[in-house]
Design goal:
Blueprint lengths: L9 H12 L15 E3 L7 E3 L5 E7 L6 E8 L7 E4 L6 E2 L3 E4 L5 E4 L5 E4 L5 H4 L1 E6 L5 E5 L5 E4 L7 E2 L4 E2 L5 E6 L2 E11 L5 E6 L6 E8 L2 E6 L5 E5 L5 E3 L3 E2 L7 E7 L5 E7 L9 E6 L3 H4 L13 E5 L5 E5 L3 E5 L2 E8 L20 E7 L1 E2 L4 E5 L4 H10 L5 E5 L9 E5 L7 E2 L6 E8 L5 H5 L9 H36 L2 H8 L2 E2 L4 E3 L2 H7 L6 E4 L3 E9 L3 E9 L6 H13 L9 E7 L2 E7 L6 H5 L7 H21 L4 E2 L8 E3 L5 E3 L6 E2 L31 H16 L14 H10 L11 H4 L2 H14 L10 H9 L12 H5 L1 H6 L1
Parallel strand pairs: 38-42
Antiparallel strand pairs: 1-7, 2-3, 3-4, 4-5, 4-6, 7-8, 8-9, 10-11, 11-12, 13-23, 14-19, 15-16, 16-17, 17-18, 19-20, 20-21, 22-25, 23-24, 24-25, 26-27, 28-29, 30-36, 31-35, 32-34, 33-34, 33-36, 37-38, 39-40, 40-41, 41-43, 42-43, 44-47, 45-46
Helix pairs in contact: 11-12, 11-16, 12-15, 13-15
Amino acid sequence: MDSGLAHIHGHFLVLVIIVLQLPAIPQAYDNVTVGSALFATDDNYSTWTSPSGDFAFGFRRLPGEQDQFLLAIWYAKLPEETVVWSANRDYPTEKESKVELTTAGQLVLSAPSGWELWRSNNTQSQSAGVSHGAMLDAGNFVITSRDSSIIIWDSFSEPTDTILPTQVLGFGNNLFSSMSEDSYKQGKFQLRLTTTGNLTLNQIDVYSRNPYGAYYTSPNVSELILDRSGYLQIRNSGSQNISNLTISKGLVIRGDSYYKATLDFDGIFRLYAHPKKFTGKVSWSAISYVPDNICMSILDTLGSGPCGYNSICALSQFGKPDCQCAPGFSLLDVNNKYGGCKQDDVSYMHECNEKGSVIAEDRFEFLEMVFADWPLADYEMLKPTTEFECTKSCLRDCYCAVAIFQDPKYNDGIGRCWKKKLPLSNGRLNRSSIDRKALFKKLKLEPNSSSQNSMNPNPGGRQQNQAILILAILLGTSVLLNFFSVASISLVVFCLWQGKLPNLYRTLNTRDPETNLRCFTYKDLEEATNGFKEELGRGSFGTVYKGVLVSGYSKHVAVKKLDKLVREGEREFKTEMTVIGQTHHKNLVQLLGYCDEGEHRLLVYEFMYNGSLSSFLFGVIRPSWQQRMQIALGIARGIMYLHEECSTQIIHCDIKPQNILLDDSFTAKISDFGLAKLLMSHQTRTLTGIRGTKGYVAPEWFRNTPITVKVDVYSFGVMLLEIICCRRCVEIEMERAAILTEWAYEYYSKGKVERLVENDEEALSDLKKVEKLVTVAIWCVQDLPLLRPSMREVSNMLEGILEVVAPPCPFLYSSMSGSDFQSS
């Protein structure tokens, strides 16, 4: 029992027992009479509200949906109006639907056509007679008998995913999680009381609700109770004693608050609190939860685990799973990172012969992930073995998608190798408790010629067929060449006759002499992107798509459709293309061409195979310390080039990890000049509206003061701290501090920079360098622009050319003019 989490005094326990044993007679001031009805409409929701106004019963429009509604109960006084119960979570209804309290004492939900969608499951209405319904201050909607002594039906008896204070969860009352953070539909987790008296959490089959194995159990429980003070209690089987539920601690928030206990979409049962009196933006806070580590708790041959199939789970804040796809896999649903992953390339199965062996071993490679394991789905184990033997065995086996290797230095000194098929379930990442390495088999991007030759297992028996095939190809090629020669000559003659040869020449010669960029037609880029089918991401000014240019060879490109530059005219667009087309630097993404046709404005960039620094830096696996240092230096050099070495100075204005891309050798390249402010050589400052991204924006943006290159220096300083700590600048998970810069400076000023790189053994072994880089970052994020170094000075400090001295407190200027900063 966790006595420190929820200590209840003896006299209060007695009071709880007495209250729970009192007859449930509703104290309703606004009774819902028989025949009353509510309708789903576009205007303000018509509701049945509790006397205090805390809760409302009625129709709620689903987020992002115009004509789909949920019949629900929610906290009416909170800005987010949190839903705590719903009748039709799996089958939303449409506009003009109706819920009515009938003469039979039942709530009936019907569609506009009159088709019945849901009916309350009343068992006593016929004999007891019905008086009225009421929405109570406890959050319970009840229907009572004529003498108000019997509750015919109440919403507490049919919970969805939440229980409220005074609500009792007994046998037959189950909680089912939602499908996702944005969906109320039933998900894959259940909280239930078994017939043997165990309170369990388990996965279920979503369609049949068949329960799988439990991943949390509290034995000898007959009832689960949430009391008015926000403590979860259990009534023990047999003795009927009430005790605290053993549960992991989160935040400690007590006092005059609302409480709820919810089985969340990620399978974690959390107790939440929300202050009743608040100012500003306040949300629900998790004050306790079970299990303490869901990634390691779920281990069942049935079900996918918390993150879905072919994914990996790492523990995040308040027990929340951080889900990522395994190497070589991508999200099944790009909008749901908890929905599992699919394999990017399944063509490797074509490399198998009829015996289940791989034809060409050298066409494959392995992607490595340490401290990772998929403990289930193995079909073969090698013991003892080495890592080389493990990969070789998986390489030759068509059925092997991943091998898990355990080094001999662990456990009993014997190397082990588990070979696994797809799909993979219950993947977990844990640096402190997993001593294994996952090796993922995948096809190489560009197989060599020897691989291609070795794909035929029996070349000798097919020489005759090959000779016939070669002869046929030669003859066919000759015919085609003759045909195209005649067609080409005819086309040229026709163009000369029509006087259109100059136009034909202009179409073929598409390089712009002013910008030295290739000028594409909209049709060119539409074909290259297959109708703008594969989206890579969205930026401030447009959407980026993956494309392939075919010109002698195939080349992958990133095509950006600009949304907000159309109104600014052709002159400004061409000016920007001229300047950016003349930028050439190792750490800038190369602009290959553009389209300026009618209303269409598109940019064509080189394709970056390793994505953005954001996904690389904040993924499951932390990049190496040396790799992060090289990336930081590369970014600094790229910004210095924009500021000082271009013919026209460029202020990027939106330096952030999402705008830093990594090529196939992980070289950092700055992208997205859509927000750049171009300055002529004689200009040093510019006045413009606020641009950039929250967390990276320099303070001078808010003070209506001239903007200089120092805004990029500030953004780089924030990003440098992110690179050092592998933490986002706006995540609130860093003890007391809300933002990364304040948190980092606090430990820097106390001489405890090691706290910034906890659990990073490589960085901890190089603390002198860590302190140096943190010092550089703090110089960059000074409130006063004049105190910030130039990017050339930053690059020299990172390279060790300039000595780095101790900086002043970066927030001094904000404290002196805080009212001005807040008002803007």
